Amino acid sequence: QVQLVESGGGLVQPGGSLRLSCAASGVIFSSYSMAWHRQTPGKQRELVALITSGGGTNYADSVKGRFTISRDNAKNTLYLQMNSLKAEDTAVYYCNGAPSILLKWPWGQGTQVTVSS
Question: What is the pLDDT of residues 43-71, one digit of tens each?
């Protein structure tokens, strides 16, 4: 079955950077579009960035110019490079196939990103 394991989160000061990773197994990773989502308590999960199987990318307006999504199909791994982090980027970050509502892959445990001085 599909398994997604996120890592790389942590505590960082405003203006800092983090690189998140998502290791996927149980799926032909290269065949699927993939996405990063984030969620804060009391709010719905929101789409942050998406990358197609062909490498095309799309970003939420709130992260454009600061975040970069990428993938390594040889390693079945998805990445999110986050620069110029702001307090409002604080959230639990999850990866999933896209569109998640159709693929219905199970969500991983996520990785906590906290941006604070």
Answer: 999 999 999 999 999 999 999 999 999 99
Burial of 116 from C-beta contacts in 10 A (0-12 / 13-18 / 19+): exposed
Dist. CA 102–CA 77, nearest whole Å: 21
Cβ–Cβ under 8 Å, residues 48 and 90: no
Which two three-digit tokens encode residue 64? 């454009």
Q: List Cβ neighbours of 91 (8 Å cut-off, separation of 6 or more).
A: 38, 39, 40, 112, 113
- DSSP codes of every residue in the chain: --EEEEE--EEE-TT--EEEEEEEESS-GGGSEEEEEEE-TTS--EEEEEE-TTS-EEE-TTTTTTEEEEEETTTTEEEEEE-S--GGG-EEEEEEEESHHHH-PPP---EEEEE--
Tokens of 29: 């990773």
